[in-house]
Write a structure and sequence with these properties.
Shape: elongated
CATH architecture of the largest domain: 3-Layer(bba) Sandwich
Radius of gyration: 22 Å
GO molecular function: thioredoxin-disulfide reductase (NADPH) activity
Pfam family, one: Pyr_redox_2
Largest sheet: 7 strands, mixed
Keywords: Flavoprotein, Membrane, Oxidoreductase, Transmembrane, Transmembrane helix
CATH class of the largest domain: Alpha Beta
Number of strands: 17
Order of helices and strands: EHEHEEEEEEHEHEHEEEEEEHEH
Catalytic activity: [thioredoxin]-dithiol + NADP(+) = [thioredoxin]-disulfide + NADPH + H(+)
InterPro entries: FAD/NAD-bd_sf, FAD/NAD-binding_dom, Ferredoxin-NADP_redctase_2
Length: 305
Amino acid sequence: MVGAMRSETVDVLVIGGGAAGLNAALVLARARRRVLVVDSGEPRNAPAHQVHGFISRDGTPPAELLATGRAEVESYGGRVEAGEVRAVRRDGGEFDVELADRVVRARRLIVATGLRDELPEVPGLRERWGQDVLHCPYCHAWEVRDQRFGVLGWQQGAVHQALLVRQWSDDVVFFAETLDGDSRAKLIARGVRIVDGAVGGLEVAGDELRGVRLADGTVEALTVLFVPPRFVPNDALLTGLGCERGDDGWVRVDQGGLTSVPGVWAVGNVVDPRAQVVNAAAAGGKAAIAVNADLVEADLLEVAR
């Protein structure tokens, strides 16, 4: 960034153009703020066929939802461009943001860079992710209801997921490498069948999941496999700026999304792993209102000087 020329100044630079970032940009553009969204074009929900749990948008393909959001932001004078942020440097109360072709001066930042799903190393699993290997029952279980479900018990939280997805199917099997007595009792009480032993891979035929193959060669027939991923936040920009983490290991924000660093807000899955699309969009809206209020106060201080 040393020696690079600033090309422009914006009120707010939004890093990440998913539901959280775009909704923040929409509110700010409508507030007549100069807002730029920079998006890497790698949405977490790209493998999914539809967005659910979002009133008036239920069933919308993710790519269509984002395309509509970008058009709405631009209709109010906001700008959305593809690209990656290479570095951010704090300069006083503002920020120099290095893009591939220039440095943009931003009075405030909203970071909406999301998270990545870390999956177990089971042969064939990642290739089925978002099709018949799923995570969120509220997002996908209705569409596969009453089929035979499997739940991969590879990490903490898998037992809770098995107890939950039983709501959508009477036929659920839990694949357990290790399982404590209390968890085993809960699964049995909920009517979940337990299969002990390591998983060796998936059985797929005709581009459809047909079952799970155990390490001993046994195949359990099923058509849907739920896998709770490990959530890894894409928060390097935030921590690089000095944003503090909470006791849970995630970057800490207040109710409006403000981090511990003045001028930096963070919204969506980068700080909230459980946020669905509708929650992320709402968080973006709340942050935008907080950012605009902060800029109003800054403008007043400038006039008073």
